[in-house]
Amino acid sequence: MSTEQSGASDPPFRETLRELPARVWIVSLGILVNRCGNFLPVFIVLYLTSQGYSPGAAGLVLGSAGLGNVLGSALGGYLADRLGRRWTIALSGVTTAALTAVIPVLDTLAMNIVVVGLVGTASQLYRPAAAALLTDCVTTNQQRVAAFAVFRFAMNLGAAAGGVLGGWLAANSYTELFLGNAAACLLFGVIAVLLLRDVPHGASDGREDTSKPTEQGSYRLALADRRLRRFLLMTVIAELVYIQSTVGLPLHVTSSGLTEADFGLLIGLNGVLVLVFELPVAGLVVKRRATHVLAWGNLATGVGLALTGFATDMIWLAATVVLWSVGEMMYSSVANAYLGGLSPAGMVGRYQGLYSAAFTLGTGVGPLIGAAIYAYNEWALWAAIGVAGLISAQLCLPSRRSPAPLAAEGAGGDAGARRDGGDCGDGGARGESGEPPQPSGRTGKGGPGADEASA
């Protein structure tokens, strides 16, 4: 991988972490709390079957949540640019809390489908808003990668703690489980309202002040960006591959004569690796070209999961888990940060919303596709994973039609460099190659203008 030529003057990554703005830590605290109580996606099927619903009916409810996730991601991106980051996060937390709290009193399948679907929508509103806020409050490539690394660390830590806490609550009472979920979501919203405040930031780094809600741009304009379309396609394929760790892997483990406990150990290994090493990995790749980091991450994930078919004992299966976990950490360390550098001023929320929707779409349909291919032929699944991994890696590299050479951007992306075609997809200065014109006011390295949410 090529290094960033302009990154020689950047401070050590550890120092960058210490100097991150307070807003990064506040939002990360909020997501830690939120994920500690994010029980519904994990336990909703068990809850419904315990209430006498069939597995098929529970699947319908879960499907409504998945559809809501996609819609919520897109809506959250729009609201982040219109209402502002702070109030979108607050709206997500409060609405999700209210809807989740009523689930224990629902007594029909139709009501469960509607309410859980609305929960799926409301619970995703915060994602593009939080990502846009992180993008807004930093000004360099290295800060952008560091901010998202901290955010993901908090998210993963919260998810790990939430799994244990959720299991304990479910064993006592599902009502307590859903009320605990609601409390965590409400607290996330309260953190956003009380600890984040609206202030203009444009004067601090020479960028246009976008602290006020804007109608500049639309999803139609965003999707006119070839680089974004290529990035979104890559995201869907990458998530189709990665989600097979929850479909193809457990099926292969049991068919190899191993147990569900063995699968739990493998997934636990992945969780430990990500928690311990994702921040160090982010520090290692921060000065590398984002397109190369994304490509190598996708390739490692695809190869690691494809090799699962050849592993029939715990040692070799653990080795494949290590490989695709490294790929996951490389990809995840730079994806949001890279997109933040690609986003025009006034459209950061929409770009992040489309990314979140593509992510959710891939993880939503991936299990269905993976299970269907596995039922047809197990080796067909591993072959498909390998091919898909290669395709997603290739989509990260610049198109041959790019009129200029790849920019020496860092893993976070350089807002200025991204105009020369060095992006994940088709290049060319904005306004060329069918891409949307570049809005004014985007002059700093940090990407789009800063938003209203501030510590």
In short:
The chain is mostly helical. The protein is built from 18 helices and two strands. The chain has two domains: 13-197, Growth Hormone, Chain: A, CATH 1.20.1250.20; 218-435, Growth Hormone, Chain: A (Up-down Bundle), CATH 1.20.1250.
Q: Which key features would you list for this structure?
A:
Growth Hormone, Chain: A; disordered C terminus; mainly alpha; 2 domains; 455 residues; single chain; globular; 69% helix
Structure in words:
- There is one protein chain.
- The radius of gyration is 21 Å and the shape is globular.
- It folds into two domains: 13-197, Growth Hormone, Chain: A (Up-down Bundle), CATH 1.20.1250; 218-435, Growth Hormone, Chain: A (Up-down Bundle), CATH 1.20.1250.
- It has helices at 13-18, 22-36, 40-50, 55-82, 85-101, 109-124, 126-136, 141-172, 174-195, 202-205, 219-223, 226-242, 248-255, 260-285, 290-306, 314-342, 348-376, 378-396; strands at 197-198, 453-454.
- With 455 residues, the protein is an all-alpha fold.
- The longest helix has 32 residues, at 141-172.
User: Major beta sheet, specifics?
Assistant: 2 strands, antiparallel
The oligomerization state is single chain
Q: What name does CATH use for the topology of the largest domain?
A: Growth Hormone, Chain: A
Q: What's the number of extended β-strand segments?
A: 2
Order of helices and strands: HHHHHHHHHEHHHHHHHHHE
**Strands in their spatial order, largest beta sheet:** 1-2
Transmembrane segments: 24-48, 60-80, 87-106, 112-134, 146-171, 177-196, 231-251, 263-286, 293-311, 317-341, 353-373, 379-397
Domain Major facilitator superfamily (MFS) profile: 23-401
Protein name: Putative Major facilitator superfamily MFS-1
Membrane topology: Multi-pass membrane protein
